[in-house]
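In this section we walk through a basic example: taking a raw amino acid sequence and producing a predicted 3D structure, encoded as discrete structure tokens. The instruction is simple. Fold the sequence below.
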Amino acid sequence: MSERNVLIGKLEEFISKYYKNLLLKGVIYFVSVFLLFIIIFSIVEYFGQFNSSVRTILFWSFSILNAAVFWRWIAIPLKGLYRLGSSLSHYDAAKIIGQHFRDIEDKLTNLLQLQELSSQENALIEASIEQKIKLLKPIPFSSAIDLKANTAYLKYAIIPVGILCVLFLSGNKKVVVDSSARILSYNTNFVPQAPFNFIVDNPNLEAIKGNDFLLEMHFAGAEIPMKSAIIVGENRYEMRQNSTGHFSFLFKNIQESQTFRFEANSYGSEIYTLNVIPKPIVNYFSIKLDYPKYTNRKTENLKNVGNLQVPQGTKIKWSIATKESERVYLRFKKSVECKRVEKNEFEYDRIFLKNTNYSIVAQNDFLLGDSILYEINVIPDAYPSIEVKETLDSINTMWHYFEGYAEDDYGIEELMFKYRFLDDTSNWVSDFVQLTNKSNKQDFSFAVDFKDLGLKYGVGLEYFFEVWDNDGINGRKSTKSSLFNFQAASVDELEAMAEEENAQLKNSLEESKKLAEDIQKDLEELQRQLLKDKELSWEDKQKTKELLEKQENLKKKVNDIQKQQKQNQLAENVYQKPNEELLRKQEEIQRLFDSIMNDELQEMMQELKEMVNTIDKEELQKMLEDMQQSDEDLEKELDRTLELFKQMELEQKLEKSIDDLQQLAEKQRELAQESNKGKQDKESLAKKQEELNKEFEALQDDLEKTKELNDQLEYKQDIPDTKSNEEKIKEDMQKSTEQLQKNMKKQASKNQNKAADKIEEMSQSLQSALQQAQSDAAAEDMQTLRQILENLIRLSLDQENILKSIVKINLNSPLYLDYLQLQNKLQADAQIIEDSLFALSKRQPQIESVVNSEINSINSSMEKALIEMAERRSSRASERQQFAMTAANNLALILSEVLEQMQKDLANMDDKPGSKMCNKGNKSGAQGMKEMKKMQQQIQEQMKNMMRGKKGKKSNKGKSSKGIAQLAAQQEMIRQRMGEIRDELSGDKNAKDNIDKMMKKMEENEVDIINDQITRETLLRQESIMSRLLEADKAQRERDKDKQKQSTEWMDNLSKRLINPFEDYQKEKQKQEELLRTIPPSFTPFYKNKVKDYFKENGE
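The resulting token sequence is shown next.
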């Protein structure tokens, strides 16, 4: 290295040291100033307690001043040291060195200048440079700078350091530390240091969004403020003092994070932040209830309904909408997580079989949401319920009616009626009850005839209803109703009840009949009293009221009788099975019962009851007269109904006895077979035989009661005497018992068969007698009705003749008296017709009650016509006669229809296969005899009446009228019919002789009648005829028993004669008219046509 470069290097070294010295002095200055600034700024801030803005100024002022000092004393020396930018030049260094070294002065500067000139390559210059270099080389340039001299500047740093040491040692380091920290954190609000501390009691400052947050704090220190405030944002709020030094503040419905600080006694706390975290919320939820199919309930959707009451087996589906939720749980006993279908939407479904509690909980990453406890009340399928009310039929106790109500929560599947007989309790029998539908509530009715179920009389039955539901979860369930019991009455008990009820009914009829008679007497007495009184008195009105009360009582009794009869008849038909003929009679008698009290009488009673206080004498007399006639009709109907009821009761008892005998015969025959087989022990067979013996004894008692009942009848039936047969049967049955007890089974079997044959024979005998009585009665009554109808037509024609005649003659003419006598005779004839018709109506229920009413009307009109004629009031007499004719014509038409129906009934009896008459043979002979006997008895009565009438009058001219001719014609007809019966007899000479003698006496009586010479001898002859008729009747019955085959043809012939009798009778009538040479009445065209139609209809 050249000397020149060494010199330059030494200059560079000087420059570096120069800058190092400046840097060292700058560091001492910077540190001193920096510490001083810290102390100054800290003290200013400490005592100033500036806010963020002032502290910002202080910070940046501090920073700028220190930056300036740093730049001046540190940055620039560093820059020069590293030759960054402009720095100290060699000339500047030479000047500094020359100033330091006096020997050098300007030599170093000149050297540098010579170096610049050395480029011109001047030797002189070079030599000068070399010289100077040698001169300057030994001088150490760097020694011109003394680094140790900088220690003199440390005094500037001692001052701030001393202040700091004092502050730190005195315990006031916070003046520097805290203040400088606050200046450095100029953006942070710092409060002035208070003589107390603000202590937050909340463990964490986190609030749930939307909730309230209670902030609690207290003071700690020497001084405790009495008040405290909180600054939230720009708002200042007073805090609530809970106790001394303890305060709280409620943040309501926090939606976002907030900053706050406390303030007390002009001191403020640090700034706190209340952080808000999102809360998982269930916004709403919907529930879909899918009920079990069997409940028939439609799917139901609910919103925000958590408590549920559902049927067992319901599927519940939750759809949950949330907010700020990541998961949703349904908490049962175990929590289940819902399925996430979309953001904030979750679903869960499940079938529930029992009660449970649950809650819905939403959750996010921060916390669990609130939950509410809900309840699911699962309703198990209830058992069905059933209520049944039983009603027994008042007539047929075997008929039971049930009304019930069955209910189930969801539906009734099935209803059954179950029963079992108490004599066999092993099995229950079920019968389905028809339901209208399968709804959950329904009424039902059920009727059952226990007899159809096979219940026997005298056996008990227990029964109940069972209802089934439609439970589709647990299987169908059933509930039973109350257990019912029924003990069927035995046949004997039913019969005893029927007898008692019939006896009560007959007593009621007797009482009603007696009451009707009393009313008749009261009516007559009141009418007589009214004839005496000039005006209607108070006593008359009172008697009228009393009469109406009796009439009302009679009405009530009749109504009760009607109801009782209907019930009795229906009740009897339950355990008895009457045949068609008996059923028909029952219907006819029931119709009579129903028509006993006619509407006309009831209307008359009501009218009189309303007018009794205002009616005058004439009106009352007229109404009482009408009422009297109606009451007479009522009395007759009661008498007639009672007699017909007794007849029907007798037939019922006979029918029952016949059936019971037939059944007993079958039982005896079966027991005979068992005895013959010998498989059963003797004790068992003997016991059965004893039971049959008792049954027969009971049948004997029934037959005895039946005969007693027959004795009470006005028209008795011929019931054969069965005493002898009964004794034989009883003897055979008793022998059978004794033989069975001795184990003689074969011999017992023979006697048992004998007893069975005799019982069956006895049954057939009674059956034949009953059928014979029925057929005889039918034919006899039909003939009687024909005769009545013929007499009625003649009566009407005779009345018409009188009506026409009295109009033409003078009232003072002697002929008028003759017509008056004829009218009197017509009235007597009408009375005979009335008696005959009433007697017939007591045997034939087919005859309507209106028939007796019409004949009463005829008699009443004729009686009044007779009175009017006697008073010479011909116009009013004609009016009454016209009434009588109208009633007679009406009655003739009615009787014609009745006769036609009777003929049809008789023809049906003949034609019906297996009918009683056909089964037992036709009893034509006996029937004809009985008919002749009845007709002859009527003639006898009429002859007695004629004889009494003859004694009571001086003149007997009227006796040559049509009445005598009719009586003679009837006797002639009977005689001719007896001749026909005689001709049909074969081989029985005694019977023929008897009929010949009887016919001769009849012919003698005919002569006496025609000659109007009826004497005591005539009546004695009539008695002889009646005796011979009885003998002939009895003989004919005996013959009929032996000739059943021949009697069938005989019945056919007799039926033909009975069905079409008027052809013979017309011929007979012509003969009689020729014989008697009587003048026939001059018929009007109307009556000619009526008579023609009548004979034509009855001749077909």
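Looking at the output, two observations stand out. DSSP finds 26 helices and 28 strands in the chain. The longest strand covers residues 281-290. In the next section we compare this with other chains.
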